[in-house]
Amino acid sequence: MARRRAPQRAPEPIRATSMWRVDQVFLARRGPRIEVTCSLVNDQGGLRNLSVTAPTEDPVQAVRHAARFIAGKGNVSGARQARLRWTREQATTEQDALIRDRLLEDEFLDEFEETLAAVRDQQR
């Protein structure tokens, strides 16, 4: 007697547009410029990194430049509670690698929110 197979569940569809959230921001000096890498997560556990090299060596201007770039993507919904740190090679001790730069976090979030509001206004 042949056994019947249990019906297979259809695989979950891949969402064409997934909303992402900024989780962490890393800064690294690359000569006279600063490279900013944003780690993004989505509601389904996906992870992706976006990097941009700011045309400046000023950290405040670099995070503002990166915030405009990331918020302008259109499918990044927020950056609340995003942690900002310098990369390990920029830290002089292991403890330095753990320290968050809260002032730069505020700069990033302010610029991100302003750009995101402008993008949403344009879409209306």
From TrEMBL:
Lineage top rank: taxon: Bacteria
UniProt protein name: YbaB/EbfC family DNA-binding protein
